[in-house]
Amino acid sequence: MPATSATFDHASVLRAVVEDRIARLTITRPDKRNAVNDALIGAFDAFFSDPPEGVRVVVLAGEGEHFSAGLDLSEHVSRPAADVMRHSRNWHRVMDKIQLGGLVVVAALKGAVIGGGLELAASTHVRVAEPSTIYQLPEGRRGIFVGGGATVRVARIIGADRMTEMMLTARICGAEEGLALGFAHYAAAAGEGEARALELARAIAGNAPLSNYLVVQALARIQDMPKADGLFAESLAAALSQTAPDAEEGLRAFLEKRKPRFS
Ligand code: 1HE
Asked: What CATH superfamily is the domain 4-205?
């Protein structure tokens, strides 16, 4: 993909507007409450497999009143087990790409963050939520199970115990509770979520790129490691970052009381 300020339209389901080091990704299925169909999963795959050159941070949002109403149920009325398995594994692959692909992803949440929409949100790194945001895991009510990574990522945020309760009751968790639970990290006023996400994205894009890369690559992986391996991996990440030119610049800038100029 070229390294210019530009707009890309992925199969009419995902729009990417690139401005300098930030890509604003917008799900463009408001009529279907931004439900995630196969085309949208394919569009995420395409974008995160080959992000525009120079982009460091992505702001992910939904067009209209909702972030995402989850899996597009119209594509899933009847499927053999093997197809459901393949479909779920494909979501896992693409959500991994979002979480561990090396770009920082800031999500602007509002309205429905339901089922697969919550799985998608849980694959991002920093989340801002407007007061309209509702979180729900209604799979049990639809006679299905989560399949886009929730048992791992959502459970890591709120714990398996609370996720069990949310799945069994399919209750709606509001913006304030979501903030307390960690579904979101920041609250924004109505209509201001994306602007707040953009502001955070700009600040994050100003960090040393290798530090950002190591944060999104290392932390989630270290959580899966035994303690001794995690600590060893931490030391490797520290050795890599602290011997890079940006570390010298960051430390020197602090001592000289000025803003660092990273690569
Ligand atoms: C959809 C979907 C969808 C809306 N798949 N088409 N997710 C859910 O169970 C959530 C289902 N959706 C809802 O509960 C509601 O739509 C909302 C609360 C999000 C919004 O309500 P509302 O009144 O604004 O919209 P609506 O009238 O319900 O829907 C508008 C249209 O969007 C309508 O289509 P239309 O052609 O009749 O206009 C809906 O059918 C469509 N729509 N949500 C398909 N999800 C990897 S495994 C993950 C498993 C899951 O994600 S399960 C949870 C699925």
From this structure: 2-enoyl-CoA Hydratase; Chain A, domain 1 (3.90.226.10)
Q: Please report the atom of ligand 1 found closest to the CA of residue 65.
A: 24
Measured from the CB, is residue 33 less than 6 Å from ligand 1? yes
DSSP letters, 52-75, are PTT--EEEEEESTT-SB--B-GGG
Query: How many Cβ atoms sit within 10 Å of the Cβ of residue 95?
Result: 24
In ligand 1, which atom is closest to the CA atom of 87?
A: 46
For 24-33, 40-49, 75-84, which range has the lowest pLDDT when averaged over its residues? 75-84
Is 256 labeled as catalytic in the residue annotation? no
Sequence ranges of the domains in the chain: 4-205, 209-255
Size of the chain, expressed as the number of residues it contains:
263
Average pLDDT for residues 192-211, to the nearest whole number? 97
How do residues 212-239 score in pLDDT, each as one tens digit?
999 999 999 999 999 999 999 999 999 9
Annotated active-site residue in 53, 119, 130, 234:
119
**Ligand 1 midpoint to CA 135 (Å):** 13
CATH number of 209-255, picked from 3.40.50.150, 3.90.249.10, 1.10.10.10, 1.10.12.10: 1.10.12.10
pTM assigned to the model = 0.96
Digit-coded pLDDT (tens) for 111-149: 999 999 999 999 999 999 999 999 999 999 999 999 999
Which residue's CA is the nearest one to ligand 1's atom 31? 32
User: By 3-state DSSP, what share of the chain in percent is helix, strand and coil, each rounded to 5?
Assistant: 50, 15, 35
DSSP code of residue 21: T
